[in-house]
């Protein structure tokens, strides 16, 4: 993908050097699958753990460091301690940031044109780059959740380390594979603007888990199709290179529910699918890419 030298979006929040973690929000984000578990174990603290934490607290207190201030989001400012950014955090102007800005700008150009043709104005989303964890209006974002879109604040959240996982663990490398991930999440933003996500969020409150999963698959496949539409417009601009389409299709196949489950547990549970199979994801991305039309992405009215 010939992205260097092209317009870069200003709709980026780089939180990768932000030490604050934030708290829990309301939930309801639409995430890119990572194959990891989303569950959380319960249970309280043992007496021994509580005693240990109290001892640690007073040790730091004696050093002039107020841990309560740290836990409340403040900075550490004890004697002889200088807070510094982690050396493995990428700088704000690194190549990955430039790439993300460029891809986001390309999605802006694509959807601005499409919405204008419909007599509507496209509201541009913001992209939050973070490292490890951050706060969103939809809840606590972490690397384990994968990239996701939050309809509550109209932002795409992305831990850029995910692309290393995409390449090394999933076998989906290449800049257009990475761009597909961004375009997919922006596709959810388009769904939000069109009123599709609000209707889905309302309807799934009345659905069984199995039915909600089936509907979620259709939502995700449509986002894949919208990503394909963006791919079509980049092709028309002449910035795609040989092999780019294959990179995106391979990425779509590698993160299908069936492929992820086979890789993680050795078998598949179809009723738990909520993003679509590898074949479905590749099919709908290609559908959008071939047509370049919103009308081709009606995953709700035809078999997926």
Please give the largest β-sheet.
Answer: 5 strands, mixed
Our Rg estimate from Cα atoms comes to: 21 Å
Total count of helical runs of at least 4 residues: 10
Give the amount of beta strand, in percent.
Answer: 5-15%
- Main sheet: strand order: 1-3-7-6-2
* Oligomeric composition of the shown chains: single chain
Poorly predicted regions are 21-27, 36-92
Mean pLDDT: 80
Per the principal axes of the C-alpha atoms, what is the gross shape? globular
What string gives the helices and strands in order? Answer: EEHHHEEEEEHHHHHHH
Structural class call reads alpha/beta
Number of strands: 7
For the termini, the CA-CA separation is 29 Å
Summarize the amount of helix as a percent range. Answer: 40-55%
Which features would summarize this protein structure in a list?
alpha/beta, 10 helices, 9% strand, 5-stranded mixed beta sheet, 7 strands, 304 residues, 46% helix
